[in-house]
């Protein structure tokens, strides 16, 4: 599937028709907060990582132009692993979580805050000075606590102080958040980015929480594309996790969707970030893609 | 030329491409004031007057959704003539201006403020409570003076008090203005709507002034469509009026364009209102239609 | 009864005494909203309609000068009838309500919004740019619904959105309201002006609702002036309607008074608008005129 | 001359007429600052000092009710003398100024701030909590400097910091100012109240400065009432002082009027405070009393 | 005990250490209201009254510099007595309260508002224009009622209107309050300053209420310094009053502490005002001095 | 030189004396912006780097508590070099500037934004959520341009957009700025931190700019401590640079001081950051340390 976005591609009358069609969607989302989790895995399947970032950035800039208030939350697992390898550190995982000693935390923080976050911020700011990079350590944004002593500096979200996020949104700026948090003694922790995205969405009362991933949604049978569920309730999510249909790295995403919706977020989506402009298609057309979790799911 | 605006008409990837293309235009006009003169003559050539109003209303609603601050100025000559005919009054014109005795003024005011203005306001408000009807008599908006004793209550614009317009725009409301003004003694006057549109655009510091008419622009030779000028400077306009190339009802429009641009309006346009969504095409595509008057015209 | 208002009529010491006497009343009503229903019938008994309007306008301007926040609500039945007659339409009434087909609605709207409203607005604005004409169709001010299919476009008040009224009052402007409303599909309706005045008074939390009529108040026996009741509770009003003592066009006025008071308006008055400056006398002297409806009526 | 202010004294139609007549004056002074110097000498000729204060208070309360922003400045020479006498101090004057040693300053301050100021504040506050007593020592309101070492703690006005006055006026409060000032070292001074009134009027940009005195105005020949001048320019005042026509305690009043007008105050008045409600008559009727100083005096 | 406050007295490294130590206290009290009762009795034991006032003023200015919002409440019993003596009036007391006839009230008001209040205000304003003197009569700050007809114009606090205090605090000004109140008819009363301080602290929701006295706190046995209680609950205070351990002039102080704490003030303190900078020591060091009343007293 | 900051170290009376002494300094700097450049070199001479950071953090927290608005600008040369070494990159310098290829830029950015900045932010936030980390790339804060093609991604400051800094200061937050900037195409650059500190101080109109270094100030003869200059004018600085007395890494600091003062900063200081609490001593005692650059230097 390809999209030609070269200027002048659409005939004027098509442009007019598309814009008129989009009116109700534009009105619905104007002034609303949309939290987007943009992850390394979303890019894993993309042939061209640079093009994927460019497409993502265009979508965020368009949302911003249309009055939406986006917040970007990102991880960076592959990039952390790459720097560790160069520095001769061997990654170690337990139950899918990275064992994080002090040096690993330093590396993770440098990569997330000083590399991935910067790349997204500067790519957005080519379109105007709209993006501000943040870490959860800033102004007490994310209070964290140790998840498990055996894992070292891996953290859970204890609290989200949304005041600085709101202040930036009020100024029409786009917060880009690296998922490091700190406790009251100044110790930092690396936190699962899916979990942070869900907690932030709930804390700011987001209209939508969107995960851009490398799968096309949640499937009743992971091996069978035809079993993708287009709509689920939080309870449906719980059941699919319990049966093992949702597994591995999809678990924190699915649970973040269910929790966020239970805490008041309008809808949470798991989309295939490899599809160009998946975010726009979800928000501004009738074509639902991926899986949507809402309080009132009406079957798939 | 037809535009199908039925939902789902455009393929999702086309929608995405169109929206991405529109980003720079959306950003350019967001928060800017656009004054649109919508006239009876714009509709004269439309096969279906109701459809033409619906298309116009869709365009204004879209502009409003995209953060533009539209002001609608309207006339209603044909409708005034129709009511006069039903009441047995014979219209009389001198130099293209309607001789307006007290009874004619009453009729004009009833038609403009109580009929045409109402029809536009209620059509817009179907999309949400966004439009407010005004007459230049409200809160001293338009101070008028007698144009010529021989013409009766035909007025010139003496001053525009833009405070109420700004207050409404600040509330994200769309002012719809009937072109009646009053003098300090409470005497009302009927004023040429093209002139009012230009004066209002200058008074509010509009980014654009747009005339929706029944012609495709200003032509060096009115009889020859191939002589349409796409860009003119105010001086060019003066010259075309002086040579007679601009004549009749086009004179007040052309002069309002030139004056408004001289008083700081970014650009003034004369478009063919019979083309569906002409307003959208002008603002959100590269396809310039009609004639644009700007300080720095660079030939046609 | 005549009032000489020519400049210099009162001796200076009388002026001083009058002003000092008025202090407590001025303080009591400063900053308070007073909704005044000004009706065609108020003028029916006045020898000179122009003088009556001038006197009314002087009163509103004085209230405004003294810090009161007036809202004027008006009807225009006689004027609608006059234009219908000129256009060859025969008015038809059922139970006192005008049967209103589409053409009649157009006529009513032209007369109310484009004629009566304009006359009041321009008369007020001779004293400064203080008045703004409104229709209930503006910015969703009055949501209406069909009263009875047999009557056509005669409406009931479903909801009043007081935000624009408050915004205008905050700017120290005087809203002048024509009693046309619209439903969500953009269909307009003509609504009884007495009912609108009561609903608006309740919606803005007015201190007073005043009906200027052509009678001297509510009488226990309509034929006997000596039975005028100076004070009534809402329950008293219900009883007088039930017994038939209040009948005809007085019913909507009396019921609007009772309803408004029940919904929090401080007091509602029915005054004889033919008495010069009746409004001033009611507000700024001890001389109660007409009938006052309050929660705590203490007999007549 | 007597004024009966008992309730109900005026017939209702007279009340209405007076109020309608007052409209233009009410509108002219609403929101404007009027500085009133109220002095012991104003009361010297009044048969009943308590009644005189009551009448003055009624006037200030009415002004406040009508939207005027009054500032009261007062002296208290006779009362200072009385307490000095009781304490066995012999007053000593040089060139009309009281020689003020430390003990005399203490007495003056107690009388002005703790007695006269309090009496005016509490009399006003019977009508509602509208008055606040101030000394020029509060928050640096009046910076003073020694006038002449031979006179002790008699001060000149060096600067007026009008911020607190404006803050109180913004809250619709009436500042009542005792004319004590202080220098940067915390030393207080007694200052001529006429001079302070003029300086305050200039500092706040007052519309009017009014001196309530015990004379009927400035006379070309002090002994001849028929030579009272109704209007003077600042230059006229200078000339009358130079010729000695203005002499004694009238000099600081006259000079304060001239200076204030030169510094932007609209008009300055010297009225006979013994005439009941002289302040109201001056502001709200055509009857000019006393002497008015304005930039454009047009003869007497 | 002496404190050398001459510039340069402390070595730089001591200065740094002291400031660093003070950080948590500075942060705790910044932006909080502290009501300080400063009484004549606090000074009675001071060898040098002028030095005592200077030290008190330094403390208030420092609090103000550190972001605290101080309110000063003062009495002036000895000074009232002195002026009465000079005027030949014999003070008369009943149950410790001064019998106050009209002349005594005048004297008390002159001394409190025109002498003591002024001295504190001007001493503070040497450090910048930060202090504003007030009486409870200003703008209805303290509504009072007669305490006992036999005592004359001695008042109880009926209500505190804290709006003007808050407005001054918002402007970062220091209100200095003389404890005269007035009733609705304009009659003033002299009120116990301890009681006023407590009522004001409760009305503004103060963090602390501090009485600067001439004793070192509340003692279980007044004659035995070793029985000083460092912490008391309001109930403890009641018990000590009931047993007579708290007696005489200490009763209103102790009861004001207990009442203020019960009405939400964080803590109330009785300190020895003769100790230099007692206020600073209490707020900015760990060294608790005097007696503190809090909801959760934990024994002495 | 050691400072004991353990609680209770100072006797209460010393605490009181120190606080009273500090009043004028506290008042002078309250509400003022102080930009502090904190550099790796400041720490090079400190025996204990952790203790040095802790002392610096205490100073910034105290300044914040005392109402000062600090902005921290930091570099991190040694730390960049350390990571480059671990990754096998050989640093290369030309004229004292690091040759910066794409990989080196990535490393510098990770270290500055993701390591040094984070360490300062989290150390500050132990005292409350007051610090926010920023890069010059955020919201267009620092627009940069290539310094010299031969050096790669080493940047000059083209413009500082101080809006976000001001917004954070308005919220009483402490911006901590890593000195990476970006150009309009999204290319990032590493910029000399001394230069950034000076440009930021000028852009926000700082009261003071302070460099914490590892020298005791500017010396006329670098080898002779007795030639330290305590005060210099910008012209003096120019002369010392021209003669070579100021050389090496001191040049950008000295020039930043001179430029900032010329652009309106009140004073710029070069202090020895190895002295504990040097910042406090400079601001809150008479003891000037290091070198101060001001417009009006009056000899050393």
Task: Summarize the helices and strands and which ones pair or pack.
Six copies of one chain form a homohexamer.
Chain A: H1 12-29, E1 33-38, H2 40-44, H3 49-65, E2 69-74, H4 77-86, E3 93-94, E4 97-98, H5 102-125, E5 131-135, E6 142-146, E7 154-160, H6 163-170, E8 174-178, E9 180-182, E10 188-191, H7 193-204, E11 208-213, E12 231-232, H8 234-243, H9 250-262, E13 267-272, H10 278-284, E14 291-293
Parallel strand pairs in A: 1-2, 1-11, 2-8, 5-8, 7-10, 11-13, 12-14
Antiparallel strand pairs in A: 3-4, 6-7, 9-10, 13-14
Going across the biggest sheet of chain A, name each strand in turn: 5-8-2-1-11-13-14-12
Question: Which structural class matches the secondary elements of chain A?
Answer: alpha/beta
Number of strands of chain A: 14
Distance between the termini of chain A: 24 Å
Number of domains of chain A: 1
| Largest interface, chains and sizes | A-F, 42 and 42 residues
Strand content of chain A: 15-25%
How many whole angstroms does the radius of gyration of chain A measure? Answer: 19 Å
Principal-axis shape of chain A equals: globular
Could you tell me the CATH topology label of chain A.
Carbamate kinase
Strand/helix succession of chain A = HEHHEHEEHEEEHEEEHEEHHEHE
Determine the oligomeric state from the structure: homohexamer
- Main sheet overview of chain A: 8 strands, mixed
